Protein backbone atom coordinates (compact mmCIF):
# COMPACT_ATOMS: atom_id res chain seq x y z
CA UNK A 1 0.00 0.00 0.00
CA UNK A 2 3.01 2.30 0.40
CA UNK A 3 5.64 0.75 -1.87
CA UNK A 4 7.18 4.15 -2.72
CA UNK A 5 7.91 4.83 0.95
CA UNK A 6 9.57 1.43 1.35
CA UNK A 7 11.66 1.98 -1.79
CA UNK A 8 12.72 5.39 -0.46
CA UNK A 9 13.67 3.83 2.88
CA UNK A 10 15.68 1.08 1.16
CA UNK A 11 17.50 3.71 -0.92
CA UNK A 12 18.40 5.81 2.14
CA UNK A 13 19.59 2.80 4.10
CA UNK A 14 21.52 1.44 1.11
CA UNK A 15 23.33 4.76 0.69
CA UNK A 16 24.22 4.73 4.38
CA UNK A 17 25.89 1.34 3.92
CA UNK A 18 28.17 3.00 1.37
CA UNK A 19 28.68 6.37 3.04
CA UNK A 20 28.93 5.08 6.62
CA UNK A 21 32.09 3.00 6.17
CA UNK A 22 33.61 5.64 3.84
CA UNK A 23 33.06 8.58 6.19
CA UNK A 24 33.88 6.43 9.22
CA UNK A 25 37.12 5.33 7.59
CA UNK A 26 38.03 8.95 6.88
CA UNK A 27 37.25 9.92 10.49
CA UNK A 28 39.33 7.02 11.74
CA UNK A 29 42.25 8.08 9.55
CA UNK A 30 42.03 11.72 10.69
CA UNK A 31 41.23 11.06 14.37
CA UNK A 32 41.43 7.50 15.68
CA UNK A 33 39.80 4.08 15.50
CA UNK A 34 37.04 4.81 18.02
CA UNK A 35 35.92 7.95 16.18
CA UNK A 36 35.90 6.08 12.89
CA UNK A 37 33.78 3.17 14.11
CA UNK A 38 31.48 5.46 16.11
CA UNK A 39 30.72 7.88 13.28
CA UNK A 40 30.34 5.14 10.68
CA UNK A 41 27.99 3.12 12.87
CA UNK A 42 25.95 6.20 13.78
CA UNK A 43 25.42 7.10 10.13
CA UNK A 44 24.14 3.60 9.35
CA UNK A 45 22.07 3.44 12.53
CA UNK A 46 20.42 6.80 12.05
CA UNK A 47 19.57 5.89 8.45
CA UNK A 48 17.95 2.66 9.65
CA UNK A 49 15.96 4.45 12.35
CA UNK A 50 14.90 7.09 9.80
CA UNK A 51 13.71 4.35 7.45
CA UNK A 52 11.78 2.62 10.25
CA UNK A 53 10.17 5.88 11.37
CA UNK A 54 9.26 6.88 7.82
CA UNK A 55 7.65 3.54 6.98
CA UNK A 56 5.95 3.36 10.38
CA UNK A 57 4.43 6.84 10.07
CA UNK A 58 3.30 6.22 6.49
CA UNK A 59 1.81 2.86 7.46
CA UNK A 60 0.02 4.44 10.43
CA UNK A 61 -1.47 7.14 8.20
CA UNK A 62 -2.46 4.70 5.48
CA UNK A 63 -4.29 2.47 7.96
CA UNK A 64 -6.68 5.33 8.76
CA UNK A 65 -8.00 5.16 5.19
CA UNK A 66 -8.57 1.41 5.18
CA UNK A 67 -11.30 -0.99 6.14
CA UNK A 68 -10.89 -4.41 7.71
CA UNK A 69 -12.45 -7.55 6.26
CA UNK A 70 -12.06 -11.27 6.88
CA UNK A 71 -10.56 -13.00 3.86
CA UNK A 72 -9.56 -16.61 3.34
CA UNK A 73 -6.28 -18.26 2.43
CA UNK A 74 -6.59 -19.73 -1.07
CA UNK A 75 -3.04 -20.57 -2.11
CA UNK A 76 0.71 -20.43 -1.54
CA UNK A 77 2.98 -19.42 -4.40
CA UNK A 78 6.71 -20.04 -4.57
CA UNK A 79 9.02 -17.04 -4.76
CA UNK A 80 12.66 -17.41 -5.73
CA UNK A 81 15.39 -14.94 -4.87
CA UNK A 82 19.18 -14.88 -5.09
CA UNK A 83 21.55 -13.66 -2.42
CA UNK A 84 24.85 -11.87 -2.96
CA UNK A 85 26.60 -15.23 -3.45
CA UNK A 86 24.23 -16.29 -6.21
CA UNK A 87 22.48 -18.91 -4.10
CA UNK A 88 18.77 -19.31 -4.79
CA UNK A 89 16.31 -19.41 -1.91
CA UNK A 90 12.67 -20.40 -2.22
CA UNK A 91 9.90 -19.14 0.04
CA UNK A 92 6.14 -19.60 -0.03
CA UNK A 93 4.04 -16.44 -0.22
CA UNK A 94 0.41 -16.65 0.90
CA UNK A 95 -2.43 -15.56 -1.38
CA UNK A 96 -5.62 -14.41 0.33
CA UNK A 97 -9.01 -13.78 -1.25
CA UNK A 98 -11.14 -10.96 0.14
CA UNK A 99 -14.40 -9.25 -0.71
CA UNK A 100 -14.49 -5.46 -0.42
CA UNK A 101 -17.53 -3.30 0.24
CA UNK A 102 -18.33 -3.21 -3.48
CA UNK A 103 -18.89 -6.98 -3.42
CA UNK A 104 -16.04 -7.79 -5.80
CA UNK A 105 -13.66 -10.63 -5.00
CA UNK A 106 -9.97 -9.78 -5.12
CA UNK A 107 -6.65 -11.42 -4.28
CA UNK A 108 -3.75 -10.05 -2.24
CA UNK A 109 -0.33 -11.68 -1.90
CA UNK A 110 1.62 -11.49 1.35
CA UNK A 111 5.32 -11.60 2.10
CA UNK A 112 7.19 -14.84 1.59
CA UNK A 113 7.12 -17.09 4.63
CA UNK A 114 4.03 -15.43 6.06
CA UNK A 115 1.01 -17.30 7.44
CA UNK A 116 3.04 -20.51 7.55
CA UNK A 117 0.81 -21.81 10.33
CA UNK A 118 -2.36 -21.38 8.23
CA UNK A 119 -4.06 -23.85 5.94
CA UNK A 120 -6.17 -23.40 2.83
CA UNK A 121 -9.53 -21.90 3.71
CA UNK A 122 -8.44 -20.43 7.06
CA UNK A 123 -9.71 -16.94 7.87
CA UNK A 124 -7.17 -14.14 7.43
CA UNK A 125 -7.71 -10.47 8.20
CA UNK A 126 -7.16 -8.08 5.30
CA UNK A 127 -7.09 -4.30 5.25
CA UNK A 128 -7.96 -2.62 1.96
CA UNK A 129 -8.00 1.01 0.87
CA UNK A 130 -11.47 2.52 0.96
CA UNK A 131 -10.60 4.81 -1.93
CA UNK A 132 -9.16 1.95 -4.02
CA UNK A 133 -10.19 -1.52 -2.77
CA UNK A 134 -7.67 -3.15 -5.12
CA UNK A 135 -4.88 -1.90 -2.84
CA UNK A 136 -4.82 -4.22 0.16
CA UNK A 137 -2.53 -5.73 2.75
CA UNK A 138 -2.69 -8.87 4.84
CA UNK A 139 -3.17 -7.55 8.36
CA UNK A 140 -0.67 -9.65 10.29
CA UNK A 141 2.47 -8.37 12.00
CA UNK A 142 4.86 -9.48 9.26
CA UNK A 143 3.00 -7.73 6.44
CA UNK A 144 1.86 -4.68 8.43
CA UNK A 145 4.87 -3.92 10.60
CA UNK A 146 7.61 -6.30 9.46
CA UNK A 147 9.51 -3.63 7.46
CA UNK A 148 9.32 -1.24 10.43
CA UNK A 149 10.67 -3.89 12.78
CA UNK A 150 13.40 -4.90 10.32
CA UNK A 151 14.69 -1.39 9.71
CA UNK A 152 14.33 -0.66 13.42
CA UNK A 153 16.64 -3.57 14.23
CA UNK A 154 19.17 -2.49 11.60
CA UNK A 155 18.98 1.04 12.95
CA UNK A 156 18.98 0.38 16.68
CA UNK A 157 22.11 -1.74 16.94
CA UNK A 158 24.46 0.38 14.82
CA UNK A 159 23.18 3.42 16.73
CA UNK A 160 23.92 1.82 20.10
CA UNK A 161 27.36 0.65 18.98
CA UNK A 162 28.00 4.08 17.46
CA UNK A 163 27.15 5.79 20.73
CA UNK A 164 29.32 3.30 22.59
CA UNK A 165 32.41 3.88 20.44
CA UNK A 166 31.80 7.64 20.25
CA UNK A 167 31.69 7.73 24.03
CA UNK A 168 34.93 5.75 24.13
CA UNK A 169 36.51 8.26 21.73
CA UNK A 170 35.36 11.23 23.84
CA UNK A 171 36.65 9.65 27.04
CA UNK A 172 39.96 8.82 25.38
CA UNK A 173 40.49 12.49 24.57
CA UNK A 174 39.88 13.66 28.13
CA UNK A 175 42.58 13.98 30.78
CA UNK A 176 43.01 10.75 32.68
CA UNK A 177 41.36 10.94 36.07
CA UNK A 178 41.50 8.03 38.36
CA UNK A 179 38.12 7.76 40.04
CA UNK A 180 38.10 7.07 43.74
CA UNK A 181 36.92 3.49 44.14
CA UNK A 182 34.68 3.11 47.11
CA UNK A 183 34.23 -0.30 48.58
CA UNK A 184 30.68 -1.60 48.72
CA UNK A 185 29.07 -1.63 52.11
CA UNK A 186 27.83 -4.97 53.47
CA UNK A 187 24.25 -3.97 52.63
CA UNK A 188 25.18 -2.96 49.07
CA UNK A 189 27.14 -6.15 48.56
CA UNK A 190 24.25 -8.23 49.87
CA UNK A 191 21.73 -6.62 47.50
CA UNK A 192 24.12 -6.85 44.57
CA UNK A 193 24.68 -10.54 45.25
CA UNK A 194 20.94 -11.19 45.43
CA UNK A 195 20.35 -9.20 42.25
CA UNK A 196 23.12 -11.06 40.41
CA UNK A 197 21.71 -14.43 41.45
CA UNK A 198 18.22 -13.39 40.29
CA UNK A 199 19.57 -12.07 36.97
CA UNK A 200 21.47 -15.32 36.39
CA UNK A 201 18.34 -17.36 37.11
CA UNK A 202 16.32 -15.28 34.61
CA UNK A 203 19.11 -15.54 32.05
CA UNK A 204 19.36 -19.35 32.35
CA UNK A 205 15.56 -19.67 32.39
CA UNK A 206 15.52 -18.08 28.94
CA UNK A 207 17.39 -21.04 27.47
CA UNK A 208 15.03 -23.45 29.21
CA UNK A 209 12.00 -21.60 27.83
CA UNK A 210 13.28 -22.08 24.25
CA UNK A 211 13.03 -25.86 24.70
CA UNK A 212 10.23 -26.25 27.24
CA UNK A 213 7.72 -23.66 26.00
CA UNK A 214 4.30 -25.36 25.73
CA UNK A 215 2.79 -25.68 22.27
CA UNK A 216 4.14 -26.46 18.82
CA UNK A 217 4.99 -22.93 17.70
CA UNK A 218 8.76 -22.64 17.22
CA UNK A 219 8.43 -18.88 16.81
CA UNK A 220 6.71 -18.39 20.15
CA UNK A 221 9.22 -20.67 21.89
CA UNK A 222 12.21 -18.80 20.50
CA UNK A 223 10.53 -15.45 21.04
CA UNK A 224 9.69 -16.15 24.67
CA UNK A 225 13.15 -17.57 25.32
CA UNK A 226 15.01 -14.69 23.69
CA UNK A 227 12.91 -12.09 25.50
CA UNK A 228 13.59 -13.85 28.82
CA UNK A 229 17.33 -13.87 28.09
CA UNK A 230 17.12 -10.17 27.23
CA UNK A 231 15.34 -9.46 30.49
CA UNK A 232 18.11 -11.27 32.36
CA UNK A 233 20.81 -9.20 30.65
CA UNK A 234 18.96 -5.95 31.40
CA UNK A 235 18.54 -7.05 35.01
CA UNK A 236 22.32 -7.57 35.15
CA UNK A 237 22.72 -4.03 33.79
CA UNK A 238 20.45 -2.66 36.53
CA UNK A 239 22.23 -4.62 39.27
CA UNK A 240 25.68 -3.46 38.10
CA UNK A 241 24.37 0.12 38.18
CA UNK A 242 23.89 -0.07 41.95
CA UNK A 243 26.46 2.05 43.80
CA UNK A 244 29.35 1.59 43.64
CA UNK A 245 28.51 1.09 39.97
CA UNK A 246 30.55 -0.80 37.41
CA UNK A 247 32.21 1.33 34.71
CA UNK A 248 29.58 2.53 32.26
CA UNK A 249 31.43 1.14 29.22
CA UNK A 250 31.21 -2.37 30.70
CA UNK A 251 27.60 -1.96 31.80
CA UNK A 252 26.50 -0.65 28.41
CA UNK A 253 27.47 -3.97 26.78
CA UNK A 254 24.91 -5.70 29.03
CA UNK A 255 22.28 -3.16 27.94
CA UNK A 256 23.05 -3.68 24.24
CA UNK A 257 22.86 -7.47 24.61
CA UNK A 258 19.61 -7.22 26.58
CA UNK A 259 17.91 -4.91 24.10
CA UNK A 260 19.12 -7.09 21.24
CA UNK A 261 17.60 -10.27 22.62
CA UNK A 262 14.37 -8.45 23.46
CA UNK A 263 14.06 -7.04 19.94
CA UNK A 264 14.83 -10.33 18.17
CA UNK A 265 12.61 -12.23 20.59
CA UNK A 266 9.66 -9.93 19.99
CA UNK A 267 10.11 -10.24 16.24
CA UNK A 268 10.25 -14.04 16.42
CA UNK A 269 7.18 -14.11 18.66
CA UNK A 270 5.14 -11.96 16.26
CA UNK A 271 6.42 -13.11 12.88
CA UNK A 272 7.12 -16.82 13.34
CA UNK A 273 4.17 -17.72 15.53
UniProtKB/TrEMBL annotation:
Entry's transmembrane regions: 6-26, 33-53, 148-170, 197-215, 221-239, 251-272
Domain of life according to the entry: Bacteria
Keywords for this protein: Membrane, Transmembrane, Transmembrane helix
Sections of the chain in a coiled coil: none
Claim: Cell cycle is one of the keywords in the record: no
Protein name: DUF3592 domain-containing protein
Organism encoding this protein: Variovorax paradoxus
Amino acid sequence: MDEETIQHAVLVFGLSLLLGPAIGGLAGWLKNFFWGVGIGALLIGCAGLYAAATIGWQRYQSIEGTASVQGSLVDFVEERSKDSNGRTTVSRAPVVEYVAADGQKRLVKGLGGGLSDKEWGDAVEVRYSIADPAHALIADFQNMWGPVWGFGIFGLFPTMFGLFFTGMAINEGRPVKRPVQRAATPTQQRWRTRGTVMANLVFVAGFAVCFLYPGESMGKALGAGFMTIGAGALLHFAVQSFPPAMAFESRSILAIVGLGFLAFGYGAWMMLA
